[in-house]
Amino acid sequence: MELRTLRYFVAVAEELHFGRAAARLHMSQPPLSRAIKQLEADVGAVLLHRSAAGVTLTPAGAALLDGARTLLDQADRVRMRVAAAAGAAAITVGILSDSSDRGAPRLAAAYRRRHPDVEVRIRETDLTDPTCGLRAGLVDVALTRGPFDETGLTVHELRADPVGAVLRADDPLARRDRLELADLADRRWFQFPDGTDPIWQSYWNGGEPREGPVVRAVQECLQAVLWNGTVGMTPLGHAPPEELAVVPLIDMAPSRVVAAWNEGDANPLIRSFVQLATAAYRG
Amino acid sequence: MELRTLRYFVAVAEELHFGRAAARLHMSQPPLSRAIKQLEADVGAVLLHRSAAGVTLTPAGAALLDGARTLLDQADRVRMRVAAAAGAAAITVGILSDSSDRGAPRLAAAYRRRHPDVEVRIRETDLTDPTCGLRAGLVDVALTRGPFDETGLTVHELRADPVGAVLRADDPLARRDRLELADLADRRWFQFPDGTDPIWQSYWNGGEPREGPVVRAVQECLQAVLWNGTVGMTPLGHAPPEELAVVPLIDMAPSRVVAAWNEGDANPLIRSFVQLATAAYRG
DNA sequence: TGGTGTCGATACCGTACGGGTATCGTCGCC
DNA sequence: GGCGACGATACCCGTACGGTATCGACACCA
């Protein structure tokens, strides 16, 4: 009898329908059926009558429904009390300005829901520091992109996006459905300011040293494409901005969305962040 | 935050020592450490201070200890209430008189602890029916030995014991450290009464039709060895009775201790029995 | 009466997590 | 400074959970 199982049972008992309960629990019906059956074996009583007419609660099931609700409610209260006893907690999250994808909002919602009393400070950083100031202690955890120098950090991959070249829509290459780095060899590129992580710099320049305007943010990179005719780079996934085209680059390693934190930092709020991030980016 | 994890935490918080807590929980220390660390990530707070001086509770840990105790207590009450609502339940367990081994007492204790209000009726049966009257509906579940005709039954293996021949201590073969069936080919054997399961009969006679006195119980089989000089059979494990010797038979398939019930019988008390039996015979 | 749709159960598979053993790092302590 | 105690880490393995595909039972309807 675990709390997870009880949550399953409450869902089924309230819906009186395995399929709908499974949908509510964001899972499929067979494992739910199995879990309920195991619960019945665990408590040693039939909890639900299944018939063609539908699902109904047995007396034992009604008793468990009542008990499970209070138990789950109590568990939530315990969680709150622990959070309160832990004191006013705060966490600073660094977010690379670019990584505005589907995962982040889900993660924010999940984290807020899980730790309603934790003050989350966001520090959005531009492309000049993919670690978002982790090493300097400016943030506790970074939601960012690889690759970068990972020494002293622990990096947890959340997703990997293929990368494309950003070109003006009227560029002859923009009609191609895929490109190789060699196709862009004679173009002007962009570069990051001096002192930017070399691994990061090299990655976005396709492994070669390139010349071109200095950019600090995604928008600057895109503007450089428009105004200077340079080559831009972006992970695939989001719709390309107006007047621009994104063409997949088939010989460039995918860019990894990662969570990173300082090695050895045992702050549980960070661990929780990473756990929730993993879930948010998986679904 | 699952009840199992909370049980772990309560143990550590009470012992203030990971090693002792692990021993109390019948597990080893590393997974316990990991579970506590995950719990900390889950609730987002440090629960324990670990220092060389020892383990101490943080305020958050103290809050959780309090909450976890009530939660676990409440869970037990819920279990009781469900059992009560299920009504006065009973289960009839068939036990082959022979299978008095270490697993059975553990299983009895676990089952009684898990279902204190369930009336367990024991029906001990002799060797004439390894199914303990399952098909006739005399018992709900059988704790017995294979092999036997399994049609219409569901059989769950709990353990497998190698088998030995029982001989008089002064028998020339009794000094051997192992025997083959061929060594006993010219001996008198024993047989079960007419109508006994043929698979069972054949197994204990080493696959051959044998002549000899009819036995109905383990004791009768052993007495036949003493008084009639026949060959006896027994699973290895228990100490041999006085005046008798047991020599392993290397070419006989092990005898399986099993739980069996009527196929399709959905009685949760049976499923629970099998679950607990599996655990009891594993440890 | 046979076709059809609904719904829970079953079968099977891949992965992830919980448990194990071995070993390390750290910190008192003699 | 070596040793012992103890929690953390690394690594391996088996179970169990969640997934997809399919079945079986049953009501409903033509």
Structural class of chain A: alpha+beta
The biggest beta sheet of chain A reads: 5 strands, mixed
Question: Radius of gyration of chain A from the CA trace?
Answer: 25 Å
Low-confidence stretches of chain A: none
Average pLDDT number of chain A: 87
**Through-space gap between termini of chain A:** 27 Å
Largest interface, with Cβ-Cβ < 8 Å?
Answer: A-B, 45 and 45 residues
Counting DSSP H or I runs of 4 or more residues, the number of helices of chain A is 8
Spatial order of strands in the largest sheet of chain A: 4-3-5-10-6
Spell out the helices and strands of chain A N to C. HHHEEHEHEEEEHHEEEH
Characterize the quaternary organization of these chains: homodimer
Shape of chain A: elongated
Describe this structure in words.
2 copies of one chain form a homodimer. With 283 residues, chain A is of the alpha+beta class. Helices cover 38% and strands 21% of the residues of chain A. The first copy, chain A, has 8 helices and 10 strands. Chain A has helices at residues 3-15, 18-24, 29-43, 59-85, 103-114, 198-204, 218-228, 268-282; strands at 48-51, 54-57, 90-96, 119-125, 141-145, 153-161, 163-168, 232-235, 244-248, 255-262. In chain A, the strands form 3 sheets. Chain A has a 5-stranded mixed beta sheet with strand order 4-3-5-10-6, with helices on one face. In chain A, helix 1 (3-15) crosses helix 2, helix 1 (3-15) packs across helix 3 (29-43) and helix 1 (3-15) packs across helix 4. Chain A binds chain B through residues 1-4, 37, 40-47, 58-60, 62-64, 67-68, 70-71, 74-75, 77-79, 81-87, 89, 114-115, 118, 266, 268-269, 271-272, 275, and chain B through 1-4, 37, 40-47, 58-60, 62-64, 67-68, 70-71, 74-75, 77-79, 81-87, 89, 114-115, 118, 266, 268-269, 271-272, 275. Chain A binds a DNA duplex (30 and 30 nucleotides) through helix 3.
